[in-house]
């Protein structure tokens, strides 16, 4: 199982002072030394954390690991993706007022726009993943749209407790199973941390986990390499 580390919130700290430190590129390199299989950055339209220069520099340096660009399905971002040429693109929803991504893509309302983005990007040989809710219907639409992968949103699972969390875990399992059966590669992410990750890592068929905030938070105390190393250990000992 792959572990993709999202370094967005290293940039969040930097942008709080509009300074040059901490550097997401350095954090990315340390994450790879700690055992990460890839680096994820979300270039938001409002540029609240990751900046264009970060994407360019990380693309230059991340050569022997997966570079995943999260982005909205807009003409601006499509053009950036085709110029930068990440190893994969994950299309995600964006709302200016949200603190973080609140849910999966609305594949019904945004179907035409998402289809155009998938076609333009995959035509250039870059695989596209769709960030979707743990819904069988969304998996089926993702297949119809021709995406290579889906990333199942684990936010509701991560934020739930007790019986509700078990229900959400079942939804994630069902979505992964449906995706694999349909020939899609299945990833998962959002809200995963050192306490709740094992249940998701144990799901058969998951290709990779994409985790950011909890790793960056732990790195404040333990350093990025050790924070990644511990998360990697947890995802492998299930």
**Amount of helix:** 40-55%
Shape: globular
Low-confidence stretches: none
Overall pLDDT metric: 96
Structural features:
238 residues, alpha/beta, 8-stranded parallel beta barrel, 8 strands, 48% helix, 17% strand
Walk me through what this model shows.
- By secondary structure, the protein is of the alpha/beta class.
- It has a single domain (2-236), classed as TIM Barrel (Alpha-Beta Barrel).
- It is built from eleven helices and eight strands.
- Strands 1-2-3-4-5-6-7-8 form an eight-stranded parallel barrel, surrounded by eight helices.
- β3 (66-71), α4 and β4 (88-91) form a beta-alpha-beta unit.
- It starts with a strand and ends with a helix.
- The mean pLDDT is 96.
Give a short overview.
The chain is α/β, with parallel strands linked by helices. Helix content is 48%, strand content 17%. It has one domain: TIM Barrel (Alpha-Beta Barrel), CATH 3.20.20.70.
Spell out the blueprint of helices and strands.
Layout lengths: L1 E5 L1 H10 L6 H10 L4 E5 L9 H10 L4 E6 L3 H10 L3 E4 L19 H12 L5 E5 L3 H10 L3 E5 L1 H5 L2 H20 L3 E5 L7 H5 L4 E6 L1 H10 L1 H13 L2
Parallel strand pairs: 1-2, 1-8, 2-3, 3-4, 4-5, 5-6, 6-7, 7-8
Helix pairs in contact: 2-3, 2-11, 6-8, 10-11
